[in-house]
Amino acid sequence: RNMSSAGPEGRKKMRECDGLIDSLVYYIQGAIADHEPNDKATENCVCILHNLSYQLEIELPESYAQSIYMQRRNISSNDKTAGCFGTRSRKVKEKQQDTPLPEEKSNPRGVESLWHSTLIRIYLSLIAKSTRSYTQEASLGALQNLTAGTGPMPFAVARTVVQKANGLPSIRTMLHVSHPTVKKTAVSLLRNLSRNTSLQSDIAREVLPDLVLILPESVPGSDIVCETTVSICYTLYNLTQSSSHNARLLLSADGLPKIITISMNDSNMFSKASRAASVLLYSLWSHTDLHSAYKK
């Protein structure tokens, strides 16, 4: 667990170690099957996998990158070829969102397991069944890592979490736990998931009222609450930017007074939260059909 957080070279060596990732996954599967999701070894295994999934998209060997980013659709020869990673073109991102991964291997080995649906379901199972905050945080954090990029892999993982594995109810529960870093990581994961336009209606229906509920009534009182507030505001921004329906949902959940209060604070300590709330307000005002409702 300590070595897995030793930086890029350490992660690379551990990902390449024959049988290591498979053994970690095997152990966790056994713990879940034996109804023992709270033992310390399971926590250690999940924390290692969490660390090994960090920056996975940009640290993958070229052979995997070519396999994963194989385009299934015929792209016009007039289009510029997109690189595997790091492109910021909106058109390219839209294409990447539509590009499915190659078919999953039924028996993934080694690094392939890190983004496989089997492990994604394991993380969601641990989020639902474990009561250890470190295990919950590491499971949420691994999913956050896997959904952090802009390529096909993060969007495919996001679809698996939301649509194939029905993970939103378990994530929603984590929004209401008392442990602040678990809550913060759950919100950060939802922020990543909400970038995927095809999932926004599902996410809004399932968790938008909960996000509004956990917004502080006034300016956040600590760094970690401030960071959580920033992520909530940008998640709500993603969900409402192109959807008047979702903006109305936010309004009916009494989110507007909270957002206004947060936006009006200009102290240096909480400027990020204030700025995020202001960006959200500006976006909400773009829905002209809601102006009269906003004014009321």
Description:
With 296 residues, this protein is mainly α. It has 17 helices and no strands. Residues 94-107 have a biased composition (Basic and acidic residues). InterPro entries: ARM-like (IPR011989), ARM-type_fold (IPR016024), Armadillo (IPR000225), Plakophilin/d_Catenin (IPR028435). This is Plakophilin-2.
Describe the structure in brief.
Keywords: Cell adhesion, Cell junction, Repeat. This protein has 17 helices and no strands.
Tally of extended strands? 0
Order of helices and strands: HHHHHHHHHHHHHHHHH
In round numbers, the mean pLDDT is 86
Shape label = elongated
Radius of gyration: 20 Å
Q: Which residues sit in consecutive blocks of at least 5 with pLDDT less than 50?
A: 71-99
Calculate the terminal CA-CA distance, rounded to whole Å. Answer: 54 Å
Strand percentage lies at under 5%
Give the helix tally: 17
Task: Give the % helix.
Answer: 55-70%
Structural class: mainly alpha
